[in-house]
Amino acid sequence: MESWLRKPSPLDIGPEQVDELLETTVTLVRKHADGVADGPVAPVSFDSDQIRKWVGEYDFSTPHSAESVLADVATGLTQWGVHTTHPRYFGLFNPTPHWWGVAGELLTAAFNPQLAAYSHAPAAVEIEQHVLRFLANRLGLPSPVAGSFTTGGAEANLSAVLIALTRHFPEYADRGLAAIPGQPVLYASAESHLAWLKIAHMTGLGRDAVRLVPVDDSYRMDIDELRRLHAADVAAGMRPFLLVGTSGTTGGGALDPLPELAACAAEWNTHLHVDAAWAGTVAFSDELRPMLAGIEQADSVTVDAHKWMSAPMGAGMFLSKHPQAVAESFRVSTSYMPADTVGSDPYTNSVQWSRRLIGLKVFLGLAVTGQGGYATQVERDTALGRLLAVRAKESGWHRINDTPLPLVCVVDPAVDARLSPAESWAWHSAVADKVVERGQAWISPVRLSGRAALRLCITSYRTEAADVAALVEEMDKARTAVGIPG
Ligand SMILES: *Cc1c(COP(=O)(O)O)cnc(C)c1O
Question: Measured in whole angstroms, how far is the alpha carbon of residue 76 from the centre of its chain?
Answer without folding.
Answer: 25
